[in-house]
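Recall that a protein's primary structure is simply its ordered list of amino acids. Everything else, from secondary elements to tertiary packing, is in principle encoded there. The following example makes that idea concrete.
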Amino acid sequence: MKKILFLACFLPFTLLAQKQKITLKDAIKKAQTESPDYQSTKNRYYAQFWRYKNFKASFLPELRLDASPSYTNSIQRIQQNDGTFNFIKQNTAVGSFDLGIRQNVPFTGGTIFVSSGLNAIYNFNEDNSTTKSFSAVPFSISYSQNSLFFNEYRWSKKIEPLMNESAKKEFVENMENISLETSRLFFAQLKAQKQLEIAQKNLSNQDTLYKISKGRFKIGTIAENELLQMELSKLNAENDVTNSELQLKLARQNFSRYLGLENQELDLEFPENLTHFEVDEQTALEYAKNNRKAVIDFRRRRLEAERNLAREKGSNLLEFSISGNVGTNSQASEFNTLYDNNNFSQSQNVSLRLGIPIFDWGVRKSKVKIAQADLDLTKTEIENQEIQFEQEISLQTLRWKNQKNTLIIAEKAKEVALKRYDITKKRYILGKITITDLNIAQQEQDRAVVSYLNTLENYWNDYYTLRRLTLYDFENNQPLTFESIYKE
């Protein structure tokens, strides 16, 4: 029996302990390490990270081994020396092996290849003898290039680093988006908590006032209409509690799921007072231009449009490609003599491909014009977006300047409304005012509390929006960099 009593007493405290208290900043830290949005942000960055790694590796030497052995034992159609064909039984093993180093040359846009190769042929004759033949390329160096007028590597070296830097900025901006979304969900639950507290308090007050009204009605100091109105207010208060409980449950589910807590109940604490700071428009714009992804994207898009124009111009005048090879080779019927110095001979080959447009009905010219128009359009779009970029910073800076006074006024209005309702309730109990005056005071109190919570939410949301737009931590007076945020 004692154990049962002990468990009965201990159980409520256990249930209460399951609720985790959390502040806004703690919730943001958790969301930036465990939320699904964080996982998506990290994976998007990884994709660009490995793309940039691949780009850098493409300019390093590549050591490659190629092997292509084959075996044939069948009747084949073979062309004879006089040009006729005969079907001849073939029982042959062929092997080809090449070891080489490939290197892209960014200065010219070509590729150089140094290699060594070995080829072997084994013919298995019908008399069970074997005829062998070997050839080797001990050393060979070759070079190839597709165009003299357009160097893809040179443009890639300008654009790819910008894409990598843009990915880092995007990661930081997405982390700030997580902060903003966490703040929104935090205040959605906080407001739901306060709405429930208000509803429960109003229900308690209405219950007390209803009991007082019933006593007054019995002694005839109030009319039945006023008693019925008080009863209706009590029923409405009960309904408000039920609706508020449902809204709080939904808000808790949304918030806990976003944080990846599997519907764990969180008890939110009011955000700590943020030391208000002044930010002038020019300073905020300077931070944004130094830190934002959009500024890097403006440069990248210009370069991409200029590259496309250069490519069309390069192929418009002359199509040209070159490949050349210099090395040694040898041939022998025995492998042991294949690499004798007497067997080596020089090997060279050069090939060019030229294409000169003579008349194409303006196709090439139109491609250049299209690329030029795309470049001009890109420049115009970027100019307009830069103006919008600056306007967004200016508007958010102005909003932030007004938030301090707005928050102070909302907090003062809440205190006045709470005090007024307490005084009005006492006067109603004393019978000095009507139920209508009391209801008005209660409604004004509820509106003032909700208005304060909305203003507080806007205050913090504007703060995190300003951080996202400038990528600057105004509390610690330092930029928000990828290196300071990203964790392996």
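The first helix runs from residue 2 to 17. Residues 60-105+107-150+319-356 form one domain.
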